[in-house]
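Q: Hi! Curious about what Reticulon 4 receptor like 1 looks like structurally. Here's the sequence.
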Amino acid sequence: WPDTTLPSLQTGALAELLLVLLGLKVPGAASCPTDCVCYPSPMTVSCQAHNFVTIPEGIPEDSERIFLQNNQITLLLRGHFSPSMVTLWIYSNNITFIDPNTFEGFVNLEELDLGDNRYLRALAANTFQGLVKLHALYLYKCGLSSLPSGIFGGLHNLQYLYLQDNHIEFLQDDIFVDLVNLSHLFLHGNKLWSLHQNTFRGLINLDRLLIHQNQLQWIHRRAFHDLRRLTTLFLFNNSLSELQGDCLAHLGALEFLRLNGNPWSCDCKARSLWEWLHRFRGSSSNVICESPERMHGKDLKVLRAEDFRNCSGSESLHQIKTFSAADRGASKAHHPHHSSKEKGGEKGLHSSHPAARPGPRRPAKNCTSHKNRNRTLKPGSLGPRKSGHEFPDYVPDYQHKFSFGVMPTGLPKRKGKCTRRTPIRAPSGVQQAAGGCAGLVASRLVFVLVLVAITR
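A: Let's find out. The predicted structure is below.
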C-alpha cells in the first residue's frame, strides 16, 4: 500500500518552517497562546486588544516582552508571568487587584505600564519590592486615592514615574526618598492640596516636576529644597494664593516655571515672590493677581516697588535689603525682565530703584572705542516676553533655553588706559630725521650755510 502520510508530514514541516521564517514561531519553544503573536530575539508575546478577561495561558517562560494592553483583564496574580520578563504593558484593562507577590523576584523587569486601569484603587506597599532594574513605572489614570509609605522603596534605578490623573489627595513624607535617579515625576490631575517639607526629599536628580491641575493651597517653603537640578516646574491651575520666594530659591537650575491659573494675592506677602521673579532668568508664565481689588487683573511680574510701599515690618525690611538697587544694577544686563525697562520699551515695567548708570564716556586721545565691538546678544537683552507670546502650559519650548550660569555680581570694568601704539619706523636703509627742537635748529643752520655759499 502506498504511504499517504508522507505528503501530510511534508506539508506540516513546511508550515512549521514558514512560521519560523516569518518569526511567528520559535524553534524548540513552547507554542504561542491562542489569539496572540510571538516573536523571537528577544522573545515577545503580543496579546493586545483581544478582550481577554484573564491572563492567557501558554505564555512561554522565556518571554521578555509581553503586551496585554486594551483587554478586559481584572486580576494580576503570582505565577502569571515569568521572572525573565523585561517589559510588561498591561494598560487600558479593568484591573482591580494586584497580588503583592505578582512581581516577586522579577530582577530583570525594566518597564511596567499599569496605566489606565480606572478600578485599581489601592496598591500594597510591597507591590514593587525587589524591582531593582525598573526604570519606568506607569500608574496614570488609575483610581488611586493614596500611596502607601514605602511603595517605591528600593527602586534606585527608576527614572520615570507617571502618577497623573488619579485621585491622590496626600503624599507621605519621604515617599520618594529612594528614587535618587528619578528624572521625571508627573503628578498633575490629582487632588493634592499641600506639599510638605519632606514630600520630595531625596529627588536629587529630578529634572521635571508636573503638579498642575491639583488643588494646592499651601506649599512649605522648603518643599523643593532637594530639587537643585530641576529645570521644569508646573504649578498652574491650582488654588495657590501665595508662594514664598524662599520656596523657589533652591531651584538654581530652573528654566521653565508655570504659575498661571491660581488666585494670587498680590499684597505684602507676595513681595518675596515678586522679587524672586525679577531675579529669575528663565521662562515663566503670567502671575495674575486676584486680590486685593486694586491689583485685580494685574500681572505680579510687572508690579513696581511702589506697589509694596505700604508694606512694613522686619519681613519687608529684609526683602528690601535682599533685593537692593545694587543687585538690580548688577543683574540688569543679564535679566530678560529688565533689559529694556529704562528705555521705556515696556509699559508698566519701570523699576522704582534704578541703578545709577554712568553716562557715555568720550574716548581718550588716540583710543579706539570698544563700544558695541563684537557684541553678542544674550537672551536677556531681547527684553521681556509679551503676554501674547507666552509658551503653552503643557509643552515648554525647549528651543529657547537661556544661559543659566552664575549671576555676576557686577558689570565687567573697562581698562582706563589706552593700549600703547606700535611706533612706525622708516624702512631699513633710510635715515630718519632727528626729532625734537635740536633737529629743527640743525636743519635751519645747514640751510643758511648753503645760502651764504651761493651768494659768494
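A: A fun detail: The longest helix spans residues 436-455.
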